[in-house]
Design goal:
It is a single chain. The protein folds into three domains: 12-176, Sandwich (Jelly Rolls), CATH 2.60.120.260; 181-270, Immunoglobulins (Immunoglobulin-like), CATH 2.60.40; 284-616, Glycosidases (TIM Barrel). The chain has nine helices and 30 strands. The chain has helices at 55-58, 306-319, 333-342, 379-396, 418-432, 475-493, 520-536, 576-585, 610-616, and strands spanning 12-14, 17-23, 41-44, 63-71, 80-85, 91-96, 99-105, 111-114, 124-132, 143-147, 153-157, 171-176, 181-191, 194-203, 208-214, 220-225, 228-233, 247-255, 258-267, 272-275, 278-281, 284-285, 288-292, 323-325, 345-349, 402-409, 438-442, 460-463, 497-501, 540-546. It has an eight-stranded parallel β-barrel with strand order 23-24-25-26-27-28-29-30, surrounded by five helices. Helix 4 runs parallel beside helix 5 (418-432), helix 6 runs parallel beside helix 7 and helix 7 (520-536) runs parallel beside helix 8. The two termini are 48 Å apart. It is an enzyme of class 3 (hydrolase). This is Beta-glucuronidase.
């Protein structure tokens, strides 16, 4: 789905701002048929949960309603008129006056509706959007609904971040010509000094198509006709990590020489490849340094905020970080566009977090029920996951910053049924985009000895917390187990291995002269221990610290106003670990740090059995 843009033939109206807001009133059905009877207003974009002082609103499970009046520009006569919602978490219904025009399940991908037949240029209409925050076994991410003894509906879920809901991204009204471009796909390659761009243009009707490529100065460097083909860019400027260069592909529908529709898609020329145990960008080995992040700030929750966007990227640059993972859902498109322009590498992750009932078993990893079964995560869950993959890849396929798809975070890949669940999804992802490698983030309970899906993927991303959840405060023992664990993955699968999560909760201002958990010094020592191990492992291609900044979670006695593993506080103040990471990462430029690397594959029986650490820590 193409992002709305203002072009020669298209116009765009942003509908962000303050909307009327109300919780679902079960005593008054169909609230959209009238003006909402509420004094509350909510900003779009933002999550609604932390805006109000009323606990009932924060804890609400079910539908909420947003409403505003919209005027269609009078100059849009003869044009198609569309409504586009960048996201509605987790389900959305859209009404134009009294008519349902769109419905969508999935909280992190866009959807739109052609409302031409329901509105008039120059006229007004009542726009009402219902948003439902419920998660079930048939949603991605999954969850469940329980009812308390006093009748309150409560949401349960298996991911460790707060279930913020609402219209967290922008809403748009835009116009297109009757005959218009519906999709653009661009895949790039390199032949010597020549860039190659395979393109495909889809349109609402069969029409003559022309494409032109403009460089960063606006100069036309190549052109072609036809809805698909290959463009050659001589003396190409490559998109590189830390040195972004973008071209514009201008697609035009023509009638004679008249332009019926025009759309510009930005793209970068670069290649991504996994070769042996190396991850290559433009044929050169790349080493990931950076973080798992969250769309999470005070008050606005997951609401997109351009000020935080700019500041977070400035902090990444200050640290020397070159990449991040969109844990654990696709981020706003503005984030990827910014990464495209500034040369930050992105591992783009789906919202498939929580497909693991073993987390309910704590450190044992043995849940009360099997994760994959007809009664738990089943064919309905898999179908929702597949649809989410389609929507994420369709939205983000042309971003040069996106170098890899992560199709799940910490699934129960060690359990029976995992392969049957994931193998069709891997096949689907490869069909949808054969140009990018695939990965998933492996949970602590999934080891190189019992994981059932690792061979299906190109890069093995490992989440490990030796020294925090196991061997807490004993970094010497943690170091032995971590090294044995990582060497086991490299030796068993012969693929690139990276650490997609490692971190320790830290209260800012907590200090100690000893390795005392929760202190700033312990977080720094914890990271140093991990880095010593990483530098000794051949085939190791990257380190993503968990987490960039502290973030809000659900209620829990092991969380102190949220997850405190950030190297920055929630309001982006650095902890001591941030300075230590800056010293390590600054100047690396994507190269693997030099250390006491060894090619030895020898491990002791204890080192090779990380699950033994979990047993010992029960």
């Amino acid at each position: 789905m193409l992002k709305p843009r203002s072009t020669l033939t298209r116009e765009l109206v942003n509908l962000d701002g303050l909307w009327r807001f109300a919780l679902e009133d079960t005593d008054v059905p169909e609230p959209w048929i009238r003006t909402l009877d509420s004094k509350l207003e909510a900003p779009v974009p933002s999550s609604y949960n932390d805006l109000f002082a009323d606990q009932k609103i924060r804890d609400h499970v079910g539908w909420v309603w947003y409403q505003r009046t919209v005027r269609v520009p009078r100059g849009w006569t003869g044009e198609r008129v569309f409504l586009r919602l960048d996201a509605a978490t987790h389900e959305g219904k859209v009404y134009v006056d009294d008519v349902l025009v769109a419905q969508h399940v999935g909280g992190y991908t866009p959807f739109e509706a052609d409302i031409t037949e329901h509105v008039a240029p120059g006229g007004e209409f009542r726009l009402t959007v219902g948003v439902n925050n419920e998660l079930t076994t048939a949603t991605i991410p999954p969850g469940g609904i329980t009812v308390s003894q006093d009748g309150r509906r409560q949401q349960t879920y298996l991911h460790d971040f707060y279930n913020y809901a609402g219209l967290a991204r922008s809403v748009w009204l835009y116009s297109k010509p009757d005959r218009h471009i519906t999709d653009i796909t661009i895949a790039t390659g390199i032949l010597g000094r020549t860039g190659v761009a395979d393109y495909s243009i889809a349109a609402s009707q069969e029409t003559r198509v022309r494409v032109r490529v403009l460089d960063a100065t606006g100069r036309e460097v190549t052109s072609a006709e036809g809805s698909q083909g290959t463009l050659s860019i001589e003396d190409v400027s490559l998109w590189r990590p830390g040195a972004a260069y973008l071209y514009d592909l201008v697609a035009e529908l023509l009638e004679g020489e008249d332009v019926i529709d025009s759309y510009t898609e930005h793209f970068g020329v670069r290649t991504v490849e996994v070769r042996g145990t190396q991850f290559l960008i433009n044929g050169e080995p790349f080493y990931f340094t950076g973080f798992g992040k969250h769309e999470d700030t005070a008050v606005r929750g997951k609401g997109h905020d351009n000020a935080y966007l700019v500041h977070d990227f400035q902090l990444l640059e200050w640290l020397g970080a070159n990449s991040f993972r969109t844990s654990h859902y696709p981020y706003a498109e503005e984030v990827l566009e910014f990464a495209d322009r500034h040369g930050i590498v992105v591992v783009n992750e789906t919202a498939a977090v929580g497909l693991n009932l073993g987390v309910q078993g704590g450190l044992t990893g043995v849940g009360p029920k099997p994760t994959f079964s007809p009664e738990t995560f089943n064919h309905e869950t898999q179908a929702a996951h597949a649809q989410h993959l389609r929507e994420v890849i369709a939205r983000d396929k042309n971003h040069p910053s996106v170098v890899m798809w992560s199709i799940a975070n910490e699934p129960a890949s060690n359990e029976d049924g995992a392969r049957e669940f994931f193998e069709p999804l891997v096949q689907l992802a490869r069909k949808l985009d054969p140009t990018r490698p695939l990965t998933y983030a492996a949970v602590m309970f999934a080891t190189f000895q019992n994981d059932k899906i690792a061979d299906l993927f190109d890069v093995l991303s490992i989440n490990r917390y030796y020294g925090w959840y196991v061997f807490t405060g004993d970094l010497a023992t943690a170091e032995q187990y971590l090294e044995g664990d990582l060497r086991g993955w490299v030796k068993t699968f012969g693929k690139p291995v990276m650490m997609s999560e490692y971190g320790a909760d830290t209260m800012p201002g907590q200090h100690s002269i000893w390795d005392l958990p929760w202190s700033e010094e312990y977080q720094q020592s914890f990271l140093d221990m991990n880095h010593r191990v990483f530098d000794r492992i051949e085939g190791f291609v990257g380190e993503h610290v968990w987490n960039f900044a502290d973030f809000q979670t659900s209620n829990g006695i092991h969380r102190v106003d949220g997850n405190r593993k950030g190297v920055f506080t929630r309001d982006r103040k650095p902890k001591a670990a941030a300075h230590a990471l800056r010293a390590r990462w600054t100047g690396l430029s994507g190269a693997k740090p030099s250390g006491n690397a060894t090619t030895s594959d020898q491990t002791t029986e204890t080192e090779a059995r990380p699950e033994a650490a979990l047993e010992g820590a029960k």
